Amino acid sequence: MSNKFTRSGYWLLAVAAALVAPGRALAQQPKPVAPGALATFATRAQAQGLTAADVSNSLVTDSYTDANGLTHTYLQQRVNGLVVFNATGAVHTNAAGKVVLTTQAFVAGAAAKAAPPAPALSPEQAVVATSVALGLPRPVGLRTLVDARVADGLTFNNGGISAENIPVQLLYEAVDGQLVLVWSVAIATLDEQHYWNAHVDAQTGRLVSKTDYVVSEATTFRQHTTAAVARQQRALAYNLAALPAPAPAPLGVTAARSLTVVPVPYENPAVHPREVVPLSVANPLYSPYGWQVAEGKAPSGFFADSYSLLSSGKYLTRGNNVAAYDDYGNTASTSPNLASPTSSPDGTSALNFDFPFDQTLGARNANNLAAGITNLFYWSNMLHDVLMAHGFDEASGNYQYKNITGQGLGNDFLRAESQDGSGRNNANFLPTPDGVSGRMQMYLFDNVPANALTVTGASAVAGTYQFAAVAFGPTLTKKPLAGKLVLVNDGVSADNGDHGCATPFVNASDVSGNVAFIQRGGCPQLTGLNPRANNQFAPKVKRAQANGASAVIVFDSLATTNLVSFGGTDTVGIRIPAIFISGADGFKLRAAIRAGATLNVSAALGPDIDGSFDNGVVSHEFGHGVSTRLTGGPANPGCLPGTTGNQIGGEGWSDFFSLWMTTHAGDIGSTPRYVATYDNSQSFSVGPGFRNQPYTTDITKNTYTYAQLGTATGKYSETHDVGEVWCTVLWDLNWQFIYKYGYNADFFSATGGNNKLLKLVLDGCKLQVCNPGFLDSRDALLRADTLTNGAANADLIWAVFARRGMGYSAKQGDKSGSGVPQVTGIVQAFDVSPTAKAITLATRNGVVSGSALEAFPNPAQDRLTVRTQLGSAAPMEVTLLNLLGQAVLPAATVPAAQMQQAGYELRTGSLAPGLYVVRVRTSGGTYTTKVTIER
Q1: pLDDT for the residue numbered 93
Q2: How far is CA 463 from the centre of its chain?
Q3: Contacts with 459 (C-beta within 8 Å, 6 or more apart), sequence order
Q4: Which residue from 71, 611, 767, 888 has the highest number of Cβ atoms inside 10 Å of its Cβ?
């Protein structure tokens, strides 16, 4: 077999097997378990209510000793010889072998709760049942590739429905207090958008649960942004503007052994011009053999492994840590572009990776493509080195072709795929266990400000409008969008049927051969139709296609919205192009058509934006690979599943890594920060990126507290939204560490508050439980600080978490039967531990704040919360004044403790819009701040 086939086949099989059964292959490796550690774990577990039988057959999935001298051993519960899903544990010992922490989420009395280990469905039938449950075609030609005991797992071929071979394992899952016998089946969808690990009942075949291991936005970035903006009633608070054009010419430098990139810590080429960076920037402690295979730093034969594709082109963007390459034309991993030497930039024997970049020429321009891949290669390597310096090393499962220390497993360099062809307007990461390459997919983004929809006809609406392309069907470059614009009439939906909810259209003859004009949504009220599926963009386009339309334009159903773009893949046989325009523009054109105007349209795409230049997003995606390998051990990437909602997932940590890597000397915590502004064609300093609120220590601009989580209207339950709240408290903590210890621009140093906090975050991930909730992760940070810093920062950590409602008395809420935190039952609290010293948080220069008066949200509408960290020997008086100094609401007397914790809420719904002053009188003085009331 060729190296190409062998390597590809190995990767697919290894990923599939490891994701279904964490630790299955790795459990046979020798583990450095401290003597007596397992016995101590068992003793403590029994004291917590488990029986000896519950812990006697535990499987050690991983164990390693980190740079702090701590040995982390991770366990999995087994009953009747079968793994219990999400029933995990850990025992952590110090350098002296003393157990310093044990955690467990085992099922008590498991043997009595477990169904008999005799399935009614065969493994083949389980694959079929899973395909039906996931809405996929049934497998064809299914055959066994790897036969084994069902407890260990067996592997089938892809059956024509998966991008990878399909592993199947028999195990137990906790459901309603019982252990149900399930088949665990992993299927990687052919479009590479999902890697499902589904559990079907081994007796009936019904779907019990499913987890997507591909970590990505639940929607495209722009959908997420628009939903967020709408929730905050600020849909018009920003304007998309064309990105500043980077310098179109090469830098004129042809330096050997160099890369031209946007260097750390700058976020994108609109913020900072590209620079020539020598390959010697690789840190010799963490990449002693360099970043690139031909640098000559590695021993002879280092890259000569028969499975290696790194040496297939010596002068490419490939090395021990990262292989970066173009994957535009390849949407299935069964034939990865990594096998092709032409898919990566060629630096020639001089190793000169200096390529000109001109945005106006489009992302697929050869030089632009090479420049983007080079940037992705540089940033992925920098992330490797920086995070290794702070604890994500070989022993804990980092990404490397060969591990130099002999600790951990190698053969898992990062596969960084630039301009991946499997989607648009997004990015994702497939976490893998140690020993299997992780995969980062960076996509192209619509350059919306440069997209031009030209409308001719009625003079009142004639002109040029912005639009967003879609991620399915033919592109406009392959099939142009042009013709007469016809408003559809489906005969059943509201607004005279213009939602396109049913077929045939009443005006099918008018639509035929023309561009169908359809309003978003509007279909849930139709009897017998699936609201979620029927409102999706693709089915609407398919119905227009069935009515003979040559193309489709969908406009938003809210007349005040900005542009969004839609994801999804062509699963319905769409053969016509489609685009999306804003509600404001759509309703304007619709009114003209209804008034009798004849409109003709044509669409022209602007040059795509290459996601490989958005260094914040690259850092975010890389971060998923870090948090998943550190939480629960490098053998078990399932401890932070990608789209299992109602928990932190990896999103909070990934946003934190993104912000941390792009922080500069001189920055301050109160300055709003955003994620993915470059990808979203937005200003770095204006945003809003793709999060609901900016990241800032200013609580008037980022109002999140723990109570933001929940299922009520306006509360967060989606994984990315929940993670945003988690990142907010980490970002607050980062700045308090900087104010305490200073900022160090040397990201490899152990000094500086930024570096100290990053290390603490990584150490906390190693100690936290699988599927952690916010308070689990808070406690892991506190424990990490105790073990490595002697609890030097405990008071500060408590103060930061208490400020955001995650204090000592807070309640984490319910967990599902499988041990996954939910957002129901959460109770926030603003107190600190009884053993912690109450402190006042610092401001920019480390000066203790004497006037920390906060009023939020600002602008406010019906309600305004006033809160302060000020002390007072007497209750505080809170008054809202107009600019003449007159009280517009009755003064309130509020206990100091309440003002410092929950604050006081003013009802402002009766006030006229305008500027007001909040006045707070304490025993130590009077303080004011200005607020705006709007309608």
Answers
A1: 95
A2: 38
A3: none
A4: 611
What CATH number does the domain containing 693 carry?
1.10.390.10
Q: Give the helix ranges, DSSP H, for 363-473.
A: 366-389
Q: Tokens in use for 510?
A: 């008018």
pLDDT of amino acid 222: 42
Please tell me whether residues 468 and 590 are part of one structural domain.
Answer: yes
Position 840 in a domain: no
Provide Rg for the chain, Cα atoms.
Answer: 28
Distance CA 608, CA 446 (A): 5
Whether 282 and 173 map to the same domain: the answer is no
The one-character DSSP state at 449 is G
* Tens digits of residue pLDDT in 325-340: 999 986 555 456 777 8
Give the mean model confidence (pLDDT) for residues 826-830. 90
Within-domain flag for 928: yes
CA nearest to 62, candidates 84, 35, 36, 92: 92
Task: Calculate ∠ Cα 334-337-338, nearest 5°.
Answer: 100
Helix (H) or strand (E) holding 552: strand 551-555
Helical H segments across 21-122, by residue range: 37-47, 52-56, 110-113
| Angstrom distance (rounded) from CA 457 to CA 455 | 7
Residue 226: pLDDT over 70: no
The tokens 């003085």 sit on which residue? Answer: 925
In three-state secondary structure terms, 884 is coil
Among 80, 112, 144, where does a domain finish?
112
Residue 567 pLDDT more than 70? no
pLDDT at 250 over 70: no
What total number of domains does the chain contain? 6
**Is the pLDDT reported for residue 11 higher than 70?**
no
pTM value is 0.83
**Antiparallel, parallel or unpaired: β 99-104 and 82-93:** antiparallel
Q: How far apart are CA 431 and CA 434, in angstroms?
A: 9
Measuring CA to CA, which residue among 659, 658, 645, 653 is closest to residue 777?
A: 653
- Top mean pLDDT of 299-313, 624-638, 682-696 is at 624-638
The rounded distance, in Å, linking the Cα atoms of 628 and 537 is 33
CB 334 within 8 A of CB 340: no
- The pLDDT of residue 151 is above 80: yes
Give the whole-angstrom CA distance, residue 443 versus residue 428.
Answer: 9
Report the Cα–Cα distance between both ends of the chain, in Å, rounded.
Answer: 69
347 Cβ contact list (under 8 Å, min separation 6): 292, 315, 316, 317, 353
Asked if residue 582 lies in contact with residue 556, where contact means CB atoms within 8 angstroms, the answer is yes
Q: Which two tokens stand for residue 719?
A: 């994984």
Query: What is d(CA 9, CA 164) in angstroms, rounded to the nearest whole number?
Result: 9
Q: Using the Cα atoms of residue 358, residue 361, residue 365 and residue 369 in order, give the sign of their dihedral.
A: positive
Q: Which residues pair with 89 in a beta bridge?
A: 75, 104
d(CA 850, CA 840): 9
Whether 786 and 721 share a structural domain: yes
| The pLDDT of residue 306 | 63
CB 404 within 8 A of CB 289: yes
Q: How far is CA 934 from CA 236, 864, 908, 913, in A?
A: 14, 11, 10, 5
Question: How many other CB atoms sit within 10 Å of the CB of residue 366?
Answer: 10
Pick the closest to residue 720 from 691, 697, 741, 740 (CA basis).
691
* Least confident stretch, 215-229, 743-757, 839-853: 215-229
* Strand 876-881 to 892-894 pairing: antiparallel
CATH of the domain at 408: 3.10.170.10
Q: What share of the chain is helix, strand, coil (3-state, %, to 5)?
A: 25, 20, 50
Per residue, the 3-state secondary structure of 772-812, as one string, reads CCHHHHHHHHHHHHHHHHCCCCHHHHHHHHHHCCECCCCEC
The rounded distance, in Å, linking the Cα atoms of 686 and 704 is 19
Q: Does residue 165 carry a pLDDT above 70?
A: yes
Task: Assess contact for 77 and 106: CB atoms under 8 A.
Answer: yes
Domain with 580 in it = 448-606
Element (H, E) at 893: strand 892-894
